[in-house]
Amino acid sequence: MFQLIQIRFYPLLLTVLTVTGCSGSVKSGEGNTGNGNDLEFSDEWIIPDNEILDGGPGRDGIPSIDDPKFAEPARLNYPDERLVIGIRSGTEIKAYPHYVMDYHEIVNDVIGDFYYALTYCPLTGTAIAWERKRDTEFGVSGLIFRNNLIPYDRTTASRYSQMQVRGVNGPRSGSILEQVPVVQMTWSSWERIYPDSRVLTTETGEDREYDEDLYGAGYREENSGTLFPVTHSDDRLPRKELVHGVIWGRPAVEDAAVRVFVLEDFDRDLSLIPHEFAGGAITVAGSREHRFAVSYFNRLSDGRILEFEAVTGSLPIIMRDQLGNRWDIFGYAAEGPDRGTRLRPTFSYTGYWFAWVDFFPNLELFRPGDE
What we know:
Mean pLDDT: 90
Helix content: under 10%
Number of helices: 5
Order of helices and strands: HHEEEEHEEEEEEEEEHEEEEEEEEEEEHE
Shape: globular
Number of strands: 25
């Protein structure tokens, strides 16, 4: 019962910490040791340890979902405007609603023999998935870096920066995780486009008030505050404006080349932005109504360069090329001579403007007409 109350009043606790100017660092694994873990954590970080804060619930106080249950969209009733996170492997497609992920932040899942961890940070609005070994599970450490989730793995006791997509503490410190592409869009759009997909349910084995908005709808408003202090700020956009960021090269550290695209700048139904970034040709596709943005390289693995044009009103198809292929939102050729081929995704994800700026203060903001 205490754990449930702690979770439900978590935003209040964080607000108090922010208002009082909390700046104390947390260098070791204080907090709950859920799931029977008795892990030894390192005190050595490769990110500024004075910016690592205790989020409140402790390790595994926000429980990961390790045995996810799914259902068809028609059986579920999620808020139309809330986003869901989609993953595709081969022909299988799964979705994970923010509505549920707010309370868990990490799902350890598998499609066939493909194992991955889906991570979602409600404070930065970032959904990022990466590959994992079959015997490795990820959990919520209870620590925060620049308002962003710090997962840990239950095998090596390493901890990771979600937005940097790399290990930052422990035996795997400095290791780069293999990102798995995801697509975010509104629930109302998803259930129309993917009626046969499998969607995460609230059957999590945890007692949570899923009908209540954990952080409050107000947290997602463009000009609302952050729950923890920020190190870098930029007022060119409202704090909670959703942007799609593309990162060139690895690791994803402060001085990485980053360019971001604003979801509101895309056409209502769909539009494309052909783009040259760091010497590479990419195409960014997005929709203001469906609230998604994705980006892919124009070059196929055999060296052919594709030229894309938008296909509107045909989701999940988003574009066609000069060879007669029609490509879906996950980057698969659904029709045409290269059917089944997948475009190479950029290293990218979508999140709040303030978070992108805080992690990558030298980023470039692209707006229509900037070419």
